[in-house]
Fold this protein.
Amino acid sequence: MAEDKQETVILTERQQKARRSRSIAIGIALAALVVIFYVATIIKFGPSILDRAM
Amino acid sequence: MLERNEQEPMALVDDTRIDEPAFRVSEATAGDFFSLLKPRVMSLVVFTAFVGLAAAPVAINPFLAVVAILAIAVGAGASGALNMWYDADIDAVMSRTATRPVPSGRVAPGEALVFGLVLSALSVMTLGVLVNWLSAALLAFTIFFYAVVYTIWLKRSTPQNIVIGGAAGAFPPVIGWAAVTGSVSLESVILFLIIFLWTPPHFWALALFKSGDYERAGIPMMPNVAGEASTRRQIFAYALVLAPVGVLPWYLGYAGAVYGAAAALLGAGFVWYSWKVLRMSDGDRAMRPAKALFGYSLLYLFAIFAVYLADSVAERALGLVGA
């Protein structure tokens, strides 16, 4: 039945493209941040930070 | 339960319209957000911060140097985004800025504000945790100074706006220096002074041939408050002070004779272009001397920092060869 259907926002092609571009940028920025903190941690504390007693 | 699930979304849609501005689906691309960072200003910040960082007498791990420059660049960009959020109303009436993301409607003001605040916090924390907290504190102060002291307070209230606000643009080499040395010294303060004294004649030259724009936007720039003749005299006065300050690093023994000679020549050029502006007639609407000074001022800042950088790198290389 028609009234059972939930009304939602249907994105235009332009909006979808814009959202995709923002999502990709956020993904790249987050990945870069992870790499930066990973490498900087090793540089600041030395490779021994990876040696952990199991 | 089923009944509630079916009815609640309908009730929401009935109460509020999804085409209201608050529910507007953003069409802003990543590129629009990038232009909120004022990339051209950012490139000058990156360059001057890099000079401060590379000219410092101690070494820093190259990766941490890149992180420091990146954090300073993002921090500067964040303050640009906050500036565009607050200034959207005046940007909309100036030809130079009307196509910026917020006044053109591509980015909502709230989005620009949150973007600026998040990047500010992220850049300061990254610099503090990975490099040192003095440089992070200086970066935080710079963002605050540009966004609050300059943009929100001074810009619309006094023709001295860019004289005091120029300090924000002068901080990057000090931050770069502090990122390496963990301190602020006279050498970095002189780099600060060069940009600080360069800012008023640079912007007033622009304001002379864009005074109509600033007047329409109601910004009290020097030409439309004190008049063009007074602005021209002040430009010349700043040039007279800037030229010798540019030579100070050589005079105090921080840079070699090559830098000293180059700074003296560049400074003499600045005074010459400012003299032409001073001699510009009142009825000159083409304002070629002002446009020429504006172009030369960009070249001056880039060149004097490039020579300072080359001088300090060469001095270090010669020191290594000598040792």
User: Anything to note?
Assistant: Chain A has one helix and no strands. Chain A has a mean pLDDT of 86.
